[in-house]
Amino acid sequence: MDKPDDILSNVLKRASENITQSFIGNTDIRERVEYVCRQMSNRACARLLMACMVATIDRPDVDPRKPYTEIGDNDAFSGRSYDEKYITRFVHDHRLPLNPTTAFLTPAFRNLNRPLTLDLELIGRPRQIYKATLQLLDDVYQKRVSAEDLLTEIVRILLFVKRKREESESYLLGFQQKKHCHYRQKRLLT
Fold this sequence. Notes:
Blueprint: H1 4-17, H2 27-38, H3 44-58, H4 79-93, H5 127-141, H6 147-189
Helix pairs in contact: 1-6, 2-5, 2-6, 3-4, 3-5, 3-6
């Protein structure tokens, strides 16, 4: 079994090699992942999903919906530990468009002692992102999608968003430089 750092490295390689092609065939699941990953006002859900997927791949005996040791079940795990130990460094090293801190400090995910099941009403905005996140955890639990494919899809989308942002920033920087150059030329002529 690969270590979490190796899991993330393999997922990054797989996602990078196929950045324009989805790893998820089910349209509903694919749309949920897109929604969660592209939600700019709430980045915690994508990080939480990443931590849960790494844990599930690392330890197939865990339930991806139980990222709290306080639950006390044998299939529960510390999602915060996975997030802080592996996801934080991965996000930082690859400059992914996510929060720099753990998702488990977000009010909706803090201090829970029960599974993240579909009947749980998480409070936060936008509300739909929490429903989509819970549904994705259930999709993995119900084996409608593998943890590896979901994690790869999350990383693929984040890489794609990062690339588009960099292209946009590069374009704007070039535009500003041309504008500045034009302004300097105009001043020299007067």
